Amino acid sequence: MLKLNASFSKKVPADEEFSSQSYHASIEAELPDGLTDKQLKDKIHDTFELVRESVEAEIGNVQSNGSESRQHIRYPQGKRSSGNKQQDNIPASTKQINYLLDLARTQGMKPGELLEQAGVTDLKRLTKVECSRLIDELNGNAKAA
Amino acid sequence: MATILELREVPHWSYSALNTYLNMCSLKYAFQYVYKTEQERTSASLPFGKAFHTAATTHAKNVMQGKRMTLPELHEVFAEWFKVECSASSNLVFKNGESINSLIEQARFMLDALLARWIDWDNIVSVAHAFKVNVPGLNKPLIGEYDMVIKEGEGTTIVDWKTSAQRWSESKADKDFQATAFSFAYLMEADHDTIPAFRFDVVTKTKNPSLENHYTQRTKDDLHRFSLLALAIERAVKKEVFLPAETSFSCRDC
């Protein structure tokens, strides 16, 4: 029997200046035997998505009860925050950027469109988190198509 | 149909990995595929080839839809992709006298040659066609992407676009490992029972660029030999046989 543990945590700025509020959720699921690599990967992806979305929704609920709903906050393009300042400053790796470019190319995007969506003039200015979000967005486009 | 990016998500073998181990340098293979070390430098010919490839793919897709691209349109596709690929590359190195601008200018003549000598106007079957096949005995599938598949008479031909600093010799295509790997893959795909022809469309990166079509054909013996080589490579990688090829042609870019 395979067991899958997926967890997601996120820190967001709290009401007081220089303070933050942590949200964390984890889920343990049992997976049936005999899954193919693709099915296993899909299960992991879906479970992780579920945990992530639950945390995001919880943050949204808490904040909409207080002040502004988190889900409606729009970060300036190319400056989206993960809520974790240390992580936000790590630049995207060459491998990440190359994957992003391959993804855009596969989807028939023009480089200009990609840079516009990224909100930067040079992809090397993207942080790991921003690049990862863009990859998720493009992957989302591919699945919706 | 899965894209090549989706196919890459699970463990696999590619022609490129097999070729790196067999024909370039097994230690280079280890750095790239096992230790996954960051490259010390990137030759400008890599983003150049990728951007040229993107332009050729865009053109072929347009032809499939009955549209014709002009040279300025195609050149713009190249220039946009080349610039963004260069800016994303680490420690980009140019050969003597070359620069981003000079290579963009060089590409204009090469794309002109590609358009002038383009022959596949109404016979394209697919463009950027990803494949995944099992090689008997290998633990991982072989994946890849045919640049273009065309119909020629009753038969099928796989086309691969290449840019090259010099003209290819007569025998180069006949010995090329990619043609063997891709012919093998095509035959292994469901509903295929004949070995396709293979054509390299080589555009030279010379003062007066030309497009040459190099045809080649593999036999069943060639494909059997390919599968044995792939098995031998997998065994050697498992045993971590990684040795530098001291006189490899790829040393200057590694």
Note the topology.
The complex is a heterodimer of chains A (145) and B (254).
Chain A lengths: L1 E12 L6 E12 L5 H30 L18 H4 L5 H13 L4 H8 L9 H17 L1
Antiparallel strand pairs in A: 1-2
Helix pairs in contact in A: 3-5
Chain B lengths: L3 H4 L5 E2 H10 L1 H9 L7 E2 L1 H20 L6 H18 L3 E2 L6 H17 L7 E10 L8 E11 L2 E10 L7 H4 L1 H12 L8 E8 L6 E7 L2 H19 L16
Parallel strand pairs in B: 1-5, 2-3, 6-7
Antiparallel strand pairs in B: 4-5, 5-6, 7-8
Description:
The complex is a heterodimer of chains A (145) and B (254). With 145 residues, chain A is α+β, with helices and mostly antiparallel strands. Chain A is built from five helices and two strands; from the N terminus they run E-E-H-H-H-H-H. Chain A has two domains: 2-87, no CATH class; 94-144, no CATH class. Chain A has helices at residues 37-66, 85-88, 94-106, 111-118, 128-144; strands spanning 2-13, 20-31. Chain A has a two-stranded antiparallel ribbon. In chain A, a hairpin with a 6-residue loop joins strand 1 (2-13) and strand 2 (20-31). Chain A starts with a strand and ends with a helix. The model of chain A is unreliable at 15-19 and 63-80 (pLDDT under 50). In chain B, strand 4 and strand 5 form a beta hairpin. In chain B, 30% of the residues are buried. Chain B has helices at 4-7, 15-24, 26-34, 45-64, 71-88, 100-116, 172-175, 177-188, 220-238, and strands at 13-14, 42-43, 92-93, 124-133, 142-152, 155-164, 197-204, 211-217. In chain B, helix 4 packs parallel to helix 6. Chain B contains nine helices and eight strands. In chain B, the strands form two sheets. In chain B, strands 1, 4, 5, 6, 7 and 8 form a six-stranded mixed beta sheet that branches. The chains are: A alpha+beta (145), B alpha/beta (254).
What helical percentage do the residues of chain A reach?
Answer: 40-55%
Mean pLDDT, all residues of chain A: 72
Mind telling me the C-alpha Rg of chain A? 17 Å
Distance between the termini of chain B: 34 Å
Quickly give the structural class of chain B. alpha/beta
